Amino acid sequence: MKWESEGSFMYGNYRREAEDLRAVVQHFCKKERLITAIIGHSKGGNVVLLYASKYNDVPTVINISGRFHLEKGIEGRLGKDFLQRIKQNGFIDIKNRKGKFEYRVTEESLMDRLTTDTHAACLLINENCRVLTIHGTMDKIVPAKDALEFARFIRNHRLHLIEGADHEYTSHQDELATVVLDFIRAVREDKYMHEQLQLCKRGANFIKSRV
Fold first, then answer.
1. pLDDT reported for residue 1
2. Cβ atoms 146, 163 nearer than 8 A
3. Which regions of the chain does DSSP assign to beta strands (E)?
């Protein structure tokens, strides 16, 4: 059975999605559950990094095929002169190859993407937060060179390139899963994880006191 979440799709919305993730983390913290890691793919990779840049309560962040330069890759999706057209009409409707409507990009959501500063977010991530970036060398949607930028600006960072993998890791699912799980296991075995649990519990007590 396939389940769809409520709400409407937005092209940008990075900051709001980071706050949605915050609500999920707080929910589990209130139940004294340890959040070992947050993981995001593509746009989700940017969201988990934005989260880590603002909240220092999850010890591990895994960015899978996130885009560093958010101002790039837009024309391929929205078409040429997208800024002029969206300012004129207020939106651009995206259709698939069969001409069927998929979603609407508003000027607000486009500007949200264009004003999201990935470089600044990377610099704000605490050095105690361990970040893994995974990227496929044959990714035609987000170039692998973006992964090198994350490695440049995140202090506690590990980069893992998967040779021959595309954006969806179509033929490299097992390798991707192995890399992710090995990294999480290594962090969970770290002696400092107990301190992170205490931090989470203190946050949960604070939340309870405010409810």
1. 46
2. no
3. 38-41, 60-64, 91-95, 101-106, 130-136, 157-162
**How far is it, in rounded angstroms, from Cα 38 to Cα 115?**
23
**DSSP 8-state secondary structure symbol assigned to residue 130:** E
Q: Which two tokens stand for residue 3?
A: 């389940």
Please indicate, yes or no, whether the overall pTM of this predicted structure exceeds 0.90: no
120 Cβ neighbours under 8 A, 6+ residues apart = 53
Report how far apart, in Å, the C-alpha atoms of 98 and of each of 41, 76, 102, 140, 141 are.
26, 17, 11, 21, 20
- Reduce the DSSP state of residue 24 to 3 states and report it: helix
b (16+ CB within 10 A) / e for 88-115: eeeebeeeeeeeeeeeebbeebbebbee
Residue (of 178, 97, 170) closest to 139 by Cα position:
170
pLDDT digits (tens, 9 = 90+) for 89-121: 888 888 888 888 888 888 888 898 989 999 999
Confidence of residue 6 (pLDDT cuts 50, 70, 90): low
Place of tokens 């940008």: 12
Other beta carbons within 10 angstroms of residue 151's beta carbon come to: 15
Neighbours of 50 (CB within 10 A): 24
Count of H-run helices and E-run strands, the chain:
9, 6
CA dist., res. 8 & res. 105, Å (int): 11
Report pLDDT for 5: 56
